[in-house]
Structure formats: C-alpha cells, structure tokens
Amino acid sequence: MSPDPLPARRAVRAPRGLLVLAAVGLALFVVPLIGLLARAPWSRLGSLITSPVVVDALRLSLISSAAAAALAVALGLPLAWVLARLEFRGRAVVRGLVTLPLVLPPVVGGAALLLAFGRRGLIGEPLYEATGLLLPYSIWGVILANAFVATPFLVITVEGALRHLDPRYEGAAATLGARRWRVFTRVTLPLIAPSLAAGTALAWARALGEFGATITFAGNLPGQTQTMPLAVFIALQHDRDIAVALSLVLVAVSLAVLIALRDRWWGRW
Amino acid sequence: MVTPALAPGLDAHLVVRRGGFTLDLPLRIAPGETVALLGPNGAGKTTAVWCLAGLLPLAAGHIRLGDRTLDDPAQRIFVPPEERRAGVVFQDYLLFPHLSAAENVAFGLLSRGRPRREARAAALEWLERFDLQDLADAASRRLSGGQAQQVALARTLATSPDLLLLDEPLAALDVTTRARLRRSLADHLAAHPGPRLLITHSPTGAFLLADRIVILEEGRATQEGTPDEIRRRPRTPYAADLTGINLLSGAARAGTIAVDGGLSLRSAAAVADGPVLLTVPPRAVRLHPEGAPPTGAINAWRAVVAVVEPLGDRTRIQLAPPLPLVAEVSRPGPGTEPGAAVWVSIDPADLAAQPG
Questions:
Q1: Which residues of A touch B98 (CB under 8 A)?
Q2: Which of B53, B55, B56, B266 is most buried by a 10 A CB count?
Q3: Does B306 touch chain A (CB under 8 A)?
Q4: What per-residue string of b and e applies to B83-95 under the rule 16 or more CB within 10 Å gives b?
Q5: A209 φ, ψ to 5°?
Q6: B281 domain-assigned
Q7: Under an 8 A CB cutoff, do A175 and B88 touch?
Q8: Statement to judge: residues B219 and B285 lie in one domain
Q9: What is the domain count for chain B?
Q10: pLDDT digits (tens, 9 = 90+) for B146-189
C-alpha cells in the first residue's frame, strides 16, 4: 500500500538555523569533490586511467569487493536469521561480536586477522601446513579483510528486516505444507529482498573503500593486493596526478552503483 | 473426493498460558460440522486457531484429528504445522504479497510436492470456482478485500485440508461484499468434508454459518449450543448482549419487508428489493399490555408470551411463533406472564436491514 500522495503545494516553513546547517553539511560533501575535480589532470586523464597501476587496482578492487559482498551474504544472512529468530543465551554477546568490526579501527581488525590467519597464526599455521594456502599478502587475504569489515553492515540491515517481518506469513506458509527450508527460500527471503539488497550494497560499498584492514593483513603488492584505496594512498606520496585519476575513477564507480541502486532497490521502500 | 464418513473428527482440549491469560477450551467437532467460536476480542479465539494449526504448542491437553494425535504435551507429541493438514484462512488473509493470486493458490500444492504445471492448473481451476480466473496473474497486493478473502480461501481449500480453520473470514469486508461472500463461504464450508471451525466476533456470521456455537469468554467456554439455543437462551449477560439479538429473514419490496407470520415491517433505512436480513436488538422490541395497543406505531402486531426468563439485571421475554422474537426489559410489566397476549411494536429506526 502506498500512502496517500501529499498535497502538491504545501507551505513548509523551515527554521532558518536548520537550513544554514544543512547547507554547511552539503558543503562538507561537495567541497572535497570540487577540489578533486579542480585538480584533475584533464589532458592526461585518458592515459592515466588506462595506466597499469590504475587498471590493476580497479580490477582487484572490483573482484575483491564483489567477492567480499558475496561472502557477506553467504555468512551474514544466516547470522542475521539466527540473531533475529532464535532465542538463546548469549545472543547479545553474539550480536556484539558480529557487529564489533563496525566500531573497531580497521587496522586493529587487520592485525587481529594477521594473528589468526597469518602464516604463524592460530588458524593460519595449520591451514598452511595442511594445504599450502597462505591468506595474507594474497587476493584471498584482501577478500577476507574486506568481508571482515563489510559483513556487519549486511547483518544489521537484514536482522532489522527479519524482525519487522510479520511472522504470520511464515506461519501461513507452514500451514500450507511448506517445510522450513521452503518457507525460508520462498517466503522469508522474497519478503526481505529489498533489505537484503540494500544490506548487500552497503557491504559492497564498505568493502570497496576498505583500507586499514586490507593493508595490515594483505599488504600492498601492486597487481596482487593493491586495491584502489591503497593505490590512491601510495600515489599521493609520489604522483598526485595518478592519485587524482584513481580517486575520480573510484568516485565514478561508486556514483554509478548508487544511481543504479536508487531506482532498483532504494526506490521500492 | 473423501466421503464424509471417512473424514476424521476433531477432539481437542486446548490449554495455553500466556502471561496472566489462560485458554482452557475443550472442543469437539464432527466431520462435516461447522462450529463457530464466538467471543469478544482477547477471549483467546485466535490463540485457539494457532494451537490447532500447530503454530503454538499446547501447555496441556491434547489435539486429536481422527486417529492422529497432533499435540499432546503429556505424551511429548507435537506434529509441526506443515504435517498437520490443518488449513487456515487467516484474519487478514496473509496472502504472500510477492506472489500473484494464482501463485498464492499454487503455493500449498507445490509445497506438497505437486509438479509446477499441475499445481498451476489446479490453482487456475480453484480461482475459476470463485470466478477470479481473470485475476490469476494479478499481484496479490492489488486485490480488493473481497478478492483477497476468496483467494485466501481458495489457497487453503486447494490443499484439501483435513481440518478447516477460518479466523474472522468476513470481518474485514464491507457490508455488501460480506453478504455475498457469506453465501459463497456457506457453499464452500458445506463442500468441505472434515471438521470446520469458524472464529468470529459477529453473531450474524455465526448464526448463519454454524451448526453449533461455542461462546468463549476470557479463555473459557461459557456456553455451547445450536445458534437457536444460544440466541433464545443466552446464559451469560455477555452472551445476551452479543448474541441475544433477533434475526429475521424476509423479502423487501418497495420499502416494506415481508417476514414470517404474514407480517410486513418497515425499516427507517432504505432497503433495496430482494432478500434481506433483519436484526432487532431485544431492547428495541416493545411490549404493551393487551388492553393498551400502541398508538401511531407502524410496526405493531399482536403476539403471545412463551417464556419469561430473568438473566442478571434484566428479564428476557420470548414470544411464541410465528415470529419468535425476544424482548428484553429491565423489569417485566403487568400482563407479560407466559401465555399472556400482548401488543408488540418495533420502531422502524431500530430495525436494521442488510442484503440477505
């Protein structure tokens, strides 16, 4: 049900102080963007964007952020369901642990990942001895670091949606003979789809911008673990033009995704 | 098609405790019998449906359907809803908003493992029975209240449940739609061979659809009987207020309504020609001693008192056929003892008429 449309002409009288602060708030987001555009090396932009540093970083960023978003869905959706639907002792603790990366400085997260999954790590050492797989300083490490910081966004979004879902729909499906898995896949999931999509988008965006955990856990190897944010940070120190070009590409990709999502997902709310 | 003789009956004793509320309701429904559970909001009606459907486990008691035990905490038996074969039409229908009308109806069949094509065909057939085939692919959230109710009923019936549970199936509808769907519901109830439980807070629905009525007040059954028994002899003040209403059927023509006993009545409200249902609250049935006919009354006739029955702070006076109305007075006046002849009058403003 869509609410009744508001009257076309409404006399909204905004408090002046609110408008001033809103304008300052807008400037906070627009001024840096203008700075970026003003300093852009427009004549060299084409060749800069197609330079190996940029292309490699972009490719790595897109792959690892997409993989991290997929991992966030695969692990975060079940976690959200457990937190929303099961009553068990220590649920508050579990929720706290799952959402910890939201407030933890990413560098700390990266360090913790290194101690757990590093070559000498708690899990990393037996894993390396058994399979020869080394997570740090590889694309797998980038994906793991990205998923670590991104998954909580999906969990809190989806858990909220599950809590707001009328449980009687699932009850109705059960009385019609649907077993638990069918209820979940055919009723629960479609009904929370908009929130799941939004949570996935948030997780992906967080993964795309990830810096601290990635550089701590996966290092900064061009072509292997150097994602866009890392490349920007490095470039700023020796070639400002490349840094600006990288930043513009990142802004363009983020904007394109936001605009694409606005119509398909956000608009449905 | 299951023959009525083979359909299982319901034998249940529902005991649930929730905070300070306790539902303690023995309930038996024969195959092919419709029982209405009638009670005010908060009496535990929906809780009873949830227990029977398996969405809420019993604290004590039992639910048996034929020779299957569905819930029995003492024996540690609990059959989950998907294995109970108890079909529910929920209060606000709960059609799956992301599915079309036909997909809603097919949902139960697919859940029970019927192939997609077969389930779709069966769903279309069910929609056709409700004359809704044109809406098969309509998004369920676009359906009107009446259409949604029928799709919900089709969705439940399509799974051929052993036990049919209807939670306020008519409450959310407007008056005209309600009358039409009540008749449709009566037909579909009659076609269902198993036990049927109808939850309602509206006495009219219960009177017209049920073979037997159970009055539920604060989690307990306070009275049980046929609609006539309940209407004529309510045993609690609540039942009297809720169900002790006079219900007449008649035919309207040019503003007058012909009812049983050769009487013509007038309602203050406009009535369309055709079958009508009249409801008259017992307090609106005025009795006058035989020697003092009401002056200037439109709806007035002579009758004989059959039963005089005190009930709490009031007295219910039942009139003899052909028009066995019940009048309710605070204190019976002179000349209203059983066998006495009286004048009866009803103000047209107190005569509510709806399409029958």
A1: 190-191, 193
A2: B53
A3: no
A4: ebbbbbbbbebbb
A5: -90, 0
A6: yes
A7: yes
A8: no
A9: 2
A10: 999 999 999 999 999 999 999 998 888 887 788 788 888 989 99
Yes or no, beta carbons of A172 and B87 under 8 Å apart? no
What is residue B20's predicted lDDT score, i.e. its pLDDT?
86
The C-alpha atoms of residue B195 and residue B164 are separated, in whole angstroms, by 6
pLDDT digits (tens, 9 = 90+) for A136-165: 889 999 999 999 999 999 999 999 999 999
Same domain, B266 and B281: yes
Q: Residue B219's closest CA among B17, B12, B10?
A: B17
Cross-chain Cβ contact B82/A178 below 8 Å = yes
Residues on chain A touching B82 (C-beta within 8 angstroms): 174-180
ipTM: 0.77
User: In 3D, which of B194, B208, B193, B145 has the Cα closest to residue B171?
Assistant: B145
Query: Closest chain B residue to A194 measured between Cα atoms?
Result: B98
Shared-domain flag, residues B34 and B58: yes
Give B330's contacts (C-beta < 8 A, 6+ positions apart).
Answer: B313, B314, B315
In a shared domain, residues B271 and B324: yes
Structural domains of chain A, count: 1
Which range of residues forms the domain containing residue A203? 62-225
pLDDT score, position A269: 39
pLDDT in tens, B8-50: 899 999 999 988 899 999 999 999 999 999 988 888 999 999 9
CATH of the domain at B323: 2.40.50.140
Q: Which domain holds residue B347?
A: 246-355
